[in-house]
């Protein structure tokens, strides 16, 4: 017989899972360690890419959407399938490395391999932490897909390995087939789903990186290509994955892509660095920015003649202009210095060591506010103005400037 406490945990867990639409048929294996999952047959699949992701909600990023009715039908099929499985795997974790500002996540799956893979995306939390959370996310991971599920969203070779569907309003993510092995789309979906929760808890979720430099925490916004090209930058990052949240009590990274998965609250960033790449030399190697100029360059996300608003390439429910305005208030209210670094010199990308030297110069806070007024600056200003006007109209705050 189970001990009374174990019985209470079992009944409570079963009721909680039932609240997410899944009825426990036989047993639940809850929060197993990696070694225990491997004993149960879990293995790591080769990392996949290109799994289709559908997102329901007001998101920006060119992601194919899914209707409310489609998602409801899909969820019904998936929960019915999971309710027919004799042994369910349930794993809990969090997005965000601090309980001060995180989003709890519960995985319900028919496959130990899916649970093991997804566990590496989450921060560890105490066993019962999710039962005290007001708005946990749920991941439904089903490795076996019926024909009904396969044809619900479409057909073709792109669905051969499975697909992912997220509903931001329901705080639910469905992973069918081998979709759990595509960590990029899983993290994109979870980042979009957690943004409203982190914002409601006093955090400012941003598409940037936190790095530790000279004993201080630096918030970095950059094209992902720049990050991937430099081992020196990667070694300083607190997480390889893009995604951070800033609050009045400190800062946190969303995903634990380095060795330890125990949560930790980091101090608030003492400096904000924005990286652009400009081959013409119009943008100086490093220059100091006012809060308004920093928000303007952040909103533009300029990279080699192209613009990626707010540096956000994945699906996001946050409007780039609202995000830039929040960053402006954060910089202004906290008197946080901001700097712009040009990732190119003489038309070529600077190497990692060169970037770290510029970063050291910026963090020293001794940079002058450089202003260069020649025809190239006017031309680049015009490109910025033309793009941002076409994108955001007359909504730009007066404080935002080049």
UniProtKB/TrEMBL annotation:
Keywords: ATP-binding, Lyase, Nucleotide-binding. It catalyses: oxaloacetate + ATP = phosphoenolpyruvate + ADP + CO2. It is an enzyme of class 4 (lyase). It holds the Pfam family PEPCK_ATP. One of its GO terms (molecular function) is ATP binding. The keyword ATP-binding applies. Its EC number is 4.1.1.49. One of its GO terms (cellular component) is cytosol. Pathway: Carbohydrate biosynthesis; gluconeogenesis. One of its GO terms (biological process) is gluconeogenesis. InterPro entries: PEP_carboxykinase_ATP, PEP_carboxykinase_C, PEP_carboxykinase_N. Belongs to the phosphoenolpyruvate carboxykinase (ATP) family. This is phosphoenolpyruvate carboxykinase (ATP).
């Amino acid at each position: 017989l189970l001990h009374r406490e174990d019985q209470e945990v079992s009944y409570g867990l079963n009721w909680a899972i039932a609240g997410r639409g899944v009825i426990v048929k036989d047993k639940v294996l809850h929060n197993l360690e990696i070694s225990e999952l491997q004993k149960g047959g879990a293995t790591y699949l080769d990392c996949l890419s290109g799994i289709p992701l559908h997102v329901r909600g007001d998101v920006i990023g060119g992601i194919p959407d899914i209707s409310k009715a489609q998602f409801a039908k899909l969820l019904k099929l998936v929960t019915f399938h999971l309710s027919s499985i004799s042994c369910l795997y349930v794993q809990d974790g969090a997005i965000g490395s601090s309980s001060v500002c995180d989003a709890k996540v519960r995985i319900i799956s028919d496959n130990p391999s899916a649970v093991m893979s997804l566990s590496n995306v989450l921060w560890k939390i105490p066993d019962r932490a999710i039962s005290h959370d007001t708005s946990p996310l749920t991941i439904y991971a089903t490795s076996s897909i019926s024909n009904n599920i396969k044809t619900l969203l479409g057909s073709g070779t792109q669905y051969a390995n499975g697909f992912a569907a997220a509903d931001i309003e329901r705080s639910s993510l469905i992973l069918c087939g081998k979709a759990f092995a595509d960590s990029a789309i899983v993290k994109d979906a979870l980042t979009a789903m957690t943004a409203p929760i982190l914002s409601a808890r006093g955090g400012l979720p941003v598409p940037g990186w936190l790095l530790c430099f000279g004993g201080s925490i630096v918030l970095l916004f950059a094209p992902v290509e720049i990050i991937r090209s430099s081992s020196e930058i990667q070694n300083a990052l607190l997480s390889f994955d893009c995604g951070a949240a800033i609050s009045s009590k400190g800062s946190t990274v969303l995903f634990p892509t380095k060795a330890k998965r125990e949560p930790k609250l980091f101090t608030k960033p003492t400096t904000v660095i924005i990286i652009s790449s400009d081959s013409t030399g119009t943008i100086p190697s490093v220059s100091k920015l006012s809060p308004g100029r920093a928000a303007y360059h952040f909103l533009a996300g300029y990279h080699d003649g192209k613009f990626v608003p707010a540096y956000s390439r994945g699906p996001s429910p946050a409007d780039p202009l609202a995000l830039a305005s929040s960053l402006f208030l954060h910089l202004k209210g906290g008197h946080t210095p901001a700097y712009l670094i040009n990732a190119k010199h003489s038309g070529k990308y600077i190497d990692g060591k060169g970037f770290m030297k510029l970063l050291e110069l910026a963090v020293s806070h001794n940079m002058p506010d450089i202003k260069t007024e020649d025809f190239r600056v006017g031309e680049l200003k015009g490109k910025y103005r033309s793009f941002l006007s076409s994108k955001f109209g007359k909504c730009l705050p007066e404080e935002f400037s080049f």
